[in-house]
Design goal:
By secondary structure, the protein is α/β, with parallel strands linked by helices. It contains 19 helices and 23 strands. It has a six-stranded mixed beta sheet. Helix 4 crosses helix 8, helix 4 runs parallel beside helix 10 and helix 13 packs across helix 15.
């Protein structure tokens, strides 16, 4: 997030797009609800009538996979109405004229034809966001999990810069991270192209710096594969071994049938996890590790706040912390990796990671500090880009709408979108072991609109088969006012009816994220 969670209260308008906030980020949703109760305008764009839509001043329902067109349409209206921040654009950005030219054709009427949103609602939404003194954009995986996900994120940055909503209280572009330490994992270099703090592995100075701190030589300067590239590489035999830590690709990856065949083709599969997941059951070696409550350490949360985590309970059996397992494995492989405790590791992190340079266990003992915090005297940075962007002026990017990789047709006439429920988390590795949560949500379902239910002669609880070009699952119907005609929703937590057997593995060409949020499916009654 460019801003903080608490900063939401200072927004005059909150624009939620691609985020079922109340179910996926319930704590953050309370801040938004509180702001709305205090007079903040709420604009929601989502293909489903989610709970936040019911609380909004305006809900606009776009077809899945049309976000860039919608955002271009908003910018078209904002420019036409003279609501853009001309001073911010002139002083702090570049490339505006090209974007202005690109969005000229994205009139409300033109965008209505792509998104399905009535033109008058597009105009109303644009004026709501554009006229606010400080407007915050909140988004999640409904924006990113598309083959055009990178374009969608750039489009939101365009919108924020157009109205001068960067570097101010109550503004910003604020992605809500999908899991509890996604931000920290990225900060630590858990990406194939960077060292910690996003230092490129192709940068010779960065390589030498890290080699010096780690007391080694010969670190590779080659960009590796993303997780979504590893599975196809395993399938074709170019990837021989895979080490999976805290991940369950046999339930979370798209096109699970293909993922299963890929993992079976490996010469070695190692899984490190707290439970015997679907993936761990197929592994050659399993390392039992401690969960968050059984160890010390730090997390960096969605607002870039680095905070301490302390052991609350003892771990069962022979489970070890992740870092202990890593160190022992490194030693077996000939590298003498040793630490006495987590604080010693964190002190090394502050040397390698410039944005963490001023942090220490003492400084984050109670509250935590937002990075960047480069020196011990620095107070941290709750709001990014207050004076300038890291590259100087922020770049506008002209973005054109692109259709999703797979669109509905005569054979597969419905759009499928997937997501989470309030009561379960990700692949259910932890939450589905809770009796109380299972009582609330015991099985998967396919959510359909009242009109589609009538069209396909379905009722609440009707067993159906939902199929795509990649697979088929059987589950029960849930007729809901959340659903809209032509689009069905399936939560992906349930291995018995795994939604990702259906989803499309096509990737965004830049981020390499799969297109989880839209694929073409058909639905029919299951045999009695």
């Amino acid at each position: 997030m460019t801003n903080t969670i608490g900063d939401i209260k200072d927004s005059d308008c909150i624009f939620i797009i691609g985020s079922n906030t109340s179910e996926n980020h319930p704590v953050i949703s309370t801040y938004i609800k509180r702001a709305v109760n205090n007079g903040t305008k709420l604009l929601v764009a989502d293909p489903r009538k989610i709970k936040m839509a019911e609380l909004s001043d305006l809900w606009i329902r776009q077809e899945s996979g049309t976000d860039a067109a919608l955002i271009n349409g908003l910018m078209n209206v904002i420019i036409k109405e003279g609501l853009e921040d001309t001073k911010f654009i002139a002083d702090r950005t570049s490339g505006y004229e090209e974007v202005k030219k690109t969005v000229e054709k994205y009139t409300p009427e033109y965008v209505e034809g792509i998104t399905g949103i009535p033109a008058d609602k597009i105009i109303k939404a644009a004026k709501m966001y554009g006229s606010a003194k400080a407007a915050s954009i909140v988004y999640c995986m409904g924006i990113t999990q598309h083959t055009s996900g990178t374009d969608n994120v750039k489009s939101l940055a365009n919108l924020a810069m157009l109205c001068g909503n960067m570097g101010i209280a109550g503004g910003g572009v604020n992605p809500l991270r999908g899991q509890n330490n996604v931000q920290g994992a990225c900060d630590m270099g858990g990406l194939p192209n960077v060292f910690p703090a996003y230092q490129p592995v192709v940068n010779e100075a960065a390589v030498k710096k890290v080699e010096s701190i780690w007391n080694t030589t010969g670190l590779s300067n080659k960009v590796g594969m993303t997780a979504t590239e590893m599975i196809p590489a395993a399938h074709d035999g170019t990837l021989k071994a895979l080490y999976v830590i805290g991940e369950n690709p046999l339930l979370s990856d798209p096109d699970i049938n293909h993922a299963k065949k890929s993992l079976e083709n490996l010469e070695l599969l190692v899984v490190q996890d707290i439970f015997l997941t679907e993936t761990a059951k197929t592994a050659d070696v399993v390392f039992p590790s401690k969960c968050f409550a059984e160890k010390d350490g730090t997390f960096a949360n969605t607002e870039r706040r680095v905070q301490r985590v302390r052991k609350a309970v003892s771990a069962p059996g022979e489970a070890k912390t992740d870092w202990e397992i890593t160190c022992e494995l490194a030693q077996k492989m000939g590298y003498d990796m040793k630490y006495n405790n987590c604080e010693e590791i964190f002190n090394e992190i502050t040397q390698v990671t410039p944005s963490y340079g001023g942090l220490s266990y003492q400084r984050i003992d109670e509250v935590g500090i937002h990075w960047p915090c480069p020196t011990a005297e620095h107070p941290g940075t709750p709001i990014l880009h207050t004076e300038q962007f890291p590259i100087g002026k922020g770049n506008f990017f002209p973005i054109e709408h692109r259709d999703p990789a797979e669109m509905p047709d005569d054979e597969y006439p419905l759009r499928l979108t997937t997501g989470r429920l309030l009561y379960h988390y990700h692949t259910g590795t932890m939450t589905r072991k809770s009796e109380g949560l299972n009582e609330r949500a015991s099985e998967g379902f396919v959510e359909v609109s009242f009109e589609d239910a009538k069209k396909y002669e379905l009722e609440d609880g009707t067993p159906v088969k939902v199929s795509s070009r990649r697979g088929e699952i059987e589950l029960k119907v849930q007729v809901s006012e959340k659903a809209v005609n032509g689009t069905v929703f399936i939560p992906f937590h349930f291995t018995e009816a795994a939604a990702n057997l259906l989803t499309n593995a096509e990737l965004d060409p830049v981020s390499k994220i799969p297109e989880f949020k839209i694929c073409a499916v058909k639905i029919k009654k299951a045999a009695a």
